[in-house]
Amino acid sequence: MSEKIAIVILNWNGKQLLEQFLPSVITHSQKASIYLADNASEDDSIAFVKTAYPSIKIIQNKKNGGYAKGYNEALKHVNEDLLCLLNSDIEVTKNWLSPILSVFNTEDNTAIIQPKILDYKDKSKFEYAGAAGGFIDKYGYPYCRGRVFNTIETDTGQYNDISKIFWASGACFFIRKSAFETLGGFDESFFAHMEEIDLCWRAFNLNFDIKYVGHSTIYHVGGATLNTNNPKKTYLNFRNSLFTITKNAKGNIFLIIVFRLLLDGLAAFKFLIAFKIMHFFAIFRAHLSYYTHLSQLLKKRKALNQSSKYYSIKSIVWSYYVDRRTHFKHL
């Protein structure tokens, strides 16, 4: 039986992005109900959508709670069986939903799916935030098929497959509504960045399957809300990575964190010698915030399942910077 799907676009002061990218979503998503989940925007986003696209259902959140709280609140008002959490800076393509729906309809244990994510600015390249599906190393550093740290592959069809992955990108994140509810939604303490990895990790630890479907393609601008050069993004990525591994990794978590402290220290030093002083301090602040949240994180850890099989590579940092393995196929 075919299940109903909802596309939910989280928006915060993004009228220009909606003007640019909603047309492709409307044109190529006739099988879906489309929602705009607005995070208390102060621009004319809602007025624009009401006028230009009256078929889009609007959910108005009372405040800007970031990605995690924004979606948690909005999805309470969405009743479709399948959810697509779609960034507002994404161009979709013809028939992009069909391969996704086919997998959901034939694989009951598949709870989360990601399509192929290419760079809107250079459509021959994979996009940083997700590429062809994500993985993680023992110490919580994420990497992707098609993107390892800052090495981004050209799309030559090498990932035109359906494959199990460890995490799916929040830029275009498909999930069964039932699974989202079972997992308790996103962890709102994250605010933004890596909350989808945390959710996928919790799904993995409950034996749900997470898939990449390379026959569905989207193009992502990336950094439209928070640019990679913004120290706040560095802060959130490093802090939330520590949050994620503390909650979900099996084993001696304190030993893992000691290694992370050393590796993060090297990253901070790299920013320092590159004269990126604000990014250096962002990592320092990320660790301070982590330690203030540690007791809460350990309580969450006790309430969750953990699995020791979450990684296939012990250290992606070592593989990339020491062994010079810059492409996924060489890992």
Can you put this structure into words, describing what you see?
The protein is 39% helix and 22% strand. The chain is an alpha/beta fold. The protein has two domains: 5-220, Alpha-Beta Complex (Spore Coat Polysaccharide Biosynthesis Protein SpsA, Chain A), CATH 3.90.550.10; 231-330, no CATH class. A hairpin with a 2-residue loop joins β6 (110-119) and β7. The radius of gyration is 19 Å and the shape is globular.
Full CATH superfamily name of the largest domain: Spore Coat Polysaccharide Biosynthesis Protein SpsA, Chain A
Quaternary structure type: single chain
Helix content: 25-40%
Task: Note poorly predicted spans.
Answer: none
Q: How many discrete structural domains?
A: 2
Query: Which fold name fills CATH's third level, the topology of the largest domain?
Result: Spore Coat Polysaccharide Biosynthesis Protein SpsA, Chain A
First-residue to last-residue Cα separation: 40 Å
* Sheet of most strands: 10 strands, mixed
The sequence of SSEs as H and E is: EHEHEHEEHEEEEEEEEHHEHHHH
So, CATH architecture of the largest domain?
Alpha-Beta Complex
Structural class given helices, strands, pairing?
alpha/beta
Tell me the name of the CATH class of the largest domain.
Answer: Alpha Beta
Number of strands: 14
